[in-house]
Design a protein that fits this description.
mainly beta; Agglutinin, subunit A
């Protein structure tokens, strides 16, 4: 599944505000090819090409799930989940930063996404006009931009200090993925349209909660401190107490099931079928 849409510059800058990173356990997947690293080093740039692929225009997370691509029309971060049998759970553009439409379009054909030696991450046109910046200049001369396995984009100093984060996570689970106590998933895609992000949070009090704009849309109603959530190979989403006792179960047994966080709801589908056979909250899915 690929989602596209127009994006105003101001909305894009709001989308890129720094946020804490969330860790999500990685699923089994072949590592990214060695030719495409996960890190953009200080003094190096990604230079746009029409397809946004290859070492010169792309960075890929070590687990191969997330890719950062510069196409000349946009900067995309894609999530590509795949089952062990090769079935694709989806391709999700959870960040699509479209360039401003003002000015000659050919200015963007060879646009540059650069990790400058002054510590700033910038996007410029082929003629050097600034489109976007992380505003981290002065934080370090050898900063690195990393596409992480958990879906976050980060800028760190050589000492490992975090100076900027996209605050993005996975939005799709396949079997074996889950949330530990205190972790979360967030769907930030629609922030570019000024729509509040949707959060799925495994609270420390044991409740799995779906929230948007500060409103609880759904909760598992479980309350055992330290509980965690996991999608099983059987297709059941479960919440387990630290002791291993099952506190809640979706009862959605299905082959090749995957859970997807979307705008205002969380849903489970299976195999090649995109229509969910379980979703919360119940009723018509929100239109965002």
């Amino acid at each position: 599944m690929r989602i596209t849409g127009s994006l105003a510059l101001a909305a894009a800058l709001a989308l890129l505000a720094a946020a804490p990173a969330a860790a999500v356990p990685a699923t089994s997947r072949a590592a990214a090819p060695a030719a495409i690293p996960s890190v953009l080093l200080a003094g190096h740039c990604l230079i746009a090409n029409p397809h946004g692929q290859g070492p010169g225009a792309e960075r890929v997370s070590p687990n191969g799930i997330f890719s950062l691509q510069v196409t000349g029309e946009s900067v995309d971060l894609d999530e590509n989940e795949t089952f062990p049998d090769g079935f694709s759970a989806g391709t999700w553009d959870w960040w699509q930063f479209l360039y401003p439409t003002s000015g000659p379009l050919n200015d963007h054909d060879k646009s540059r996404f650069c990790m400058r030696t002054n510590g700033d991450l910038v996007l410029t046109t082929s003629k050097g006009k600034l489109i976007w910046a992380s505003h981290t200049a002065g934080s370090g001369r050898h900063n690195e931009l990393t596409v992480r396995d958990d879906g976050d984009l980060t800028i760190t100093t050589p000492a490992g200090k975090l100076v900027w984060s996209s605050g993005t996570t996975r939005t799709i689970w396949i079997a074996g993925a889950g949330l530990a106590s205190g972790q979360h998933l967030v769907d930030r895609y629609r922030e570019q349209f000024n729509i509040a992000p949707t959060w799925l949070i495994m609270r420390r009090d044991g409740a799995l909660v779906l929230e948007r704009a500060g409103r609880v849309l759904w909760t598992s109603g479980t309350h055992v401190s330290g509980a965690h959530a996991e999608l099983l190979a059987s297709g059941d989403l479960v919440i387990d107490a630290p002791s291993g006792r099952v506190l809640w179960r979706s009862r959605t047994r299905a082959h090749d099931a995957f859970v997807e966080l979307n705008c205002g709801y969380v849903a489970m589908s299976s195999g090649g079928h995109r229509q969910p056979h379980w979703h919360e909250p119940p009723g018509p899915q929100p239109v965002c």
